[in-house]
Design goal:
mainly alpha; 7 helices; 85% helix
């Protein structure tokens, strides 16, 4: 039997390799037969493997894109409210109350804005379901907010980052840092609150 005929008789799954050839020939060509079999199986499985990897990558990209969109909306709402309140605080409240008390007076309004904005993005982006995903949304939005704050300080107030941080009042600045941390975790906290309310409604029904 010629080797060319042997190659023609090998099935892709290797099922007919062991049945059609003498034992002595199989021993002499064991390494070659094994290679043919591995190549056939790998060629059969690789499209499925590639498809699975691509599906995972697409799902990951879609999930991250949705989280990024939710973070952008969350950041936009809170930043817009903060910018509006700041335009009122600086010319009207700071001359009368001083910077510390003017900023402290603004904090309850910012808390309300953060609370409502988090609830809005939860309802608007209902495809984001897991607690970890909402933590990601919050921290992406936090990065956007801090970056925007620093850019405004550098562009509008003509300050460096170090000068801006040094100019913050120690008391109102500490409260502001706490508000930033709350801003980052508020979507996750609201998610837990909404889940508790849904369970409560199901129990009542």
């Amino acid at each position: 039997m010629h080797e060319a005929q042997v190659l023609c008789q090998v099935d892709p799954d290797g099922s007919n390799v062991s049945d059609d050839f003498p034992v002595s020939w199989m021993i002499d060509h064991a390494h070659t037969r094994q290679t043919w079999h591995v190549d056939a199986v790998a060629g059969w499985e690789s499209p499925l493997l590639s498809s699975g990897v691509m599906n995972v990558l697409r799902a990951t990209a879609t999930s991250f894109g949705t989280a990024l969109a939710a973070a952008s909306v969350y950041f936009g709402i809170v930043f817009g409210v903060g910018f509006l309140l700041g335009s009122i605080r600086v010319p009207l409240l700071v001359p009368r109350l001083g910077e510390r008390y003017a900023e402290l007076a603004e904090m309850p309004l910012m808390f309300i804005a953060v609370f409502l904005a988090a609830g809005y993005v939860l309802s608007r982006f209902s495809r984001v379901r897991t607690p970890g995903s909402w933590l990601l949304v919050g921290f992406i939005a936090l990065a956007m907010l801090v970056l925007a704050e620093l850019l405004l300080a550098m562009v509008l107030a003509d300050r460096s980052v170090g000068e801006y941080i040094a100019s913050r009042d120690p008391i109102s600045g500490t409260v502001y840092l706490g508000m930033l941390a709350l801003f980052a975790v508020m979507p996750r906290l609201r998610l837990g609150s909404n889940g508790w309310r849904r369970k409560e409604a199901q129990v009542k029904e």
